[in-house]
User: Fold this.
Amino acid sequence: QVQLVESGGGLVQAGGSLRLSCAASGSTFSSNRGGWYRQAPGKQREMVARISSGGETLYADSVKGRFTISRDNAKNTIYLQMNSLKFEDTAVYYCNLVMFTSYWGQGTQVTVSS
Assistant:
């Protein structure tokens, strides 16, 4: 059974930084695609950043140059480093792993105060 556990969310002022972590069990990020998605109140869930098993990354236009996704194979963990945070980055952030189907973490709240 695949389980994803996120951590690192919180409250931060605009312009600040946060780093999210997602640890996987039951599967590995090194062999599958991992990613971060977010959902703001009243909006659909959207892709923020993804990393393939080969290490290729993809970012939403809204976070390019500010967010960085990375992976630690030894810890079976992916990270999302978020810099220059904006009020509009406020959302629940979800970790995702794709292995035949999508698996999701429980979500972690990120709140950016203006």
Observations:
- The chain has a mean pLDDT of 96.
- The two ends are 40 Å apart (CA to CA).
- The longest strand covers residues 91-99.
- Residues 40 and 46 are 9 Å apart (CA to CA).
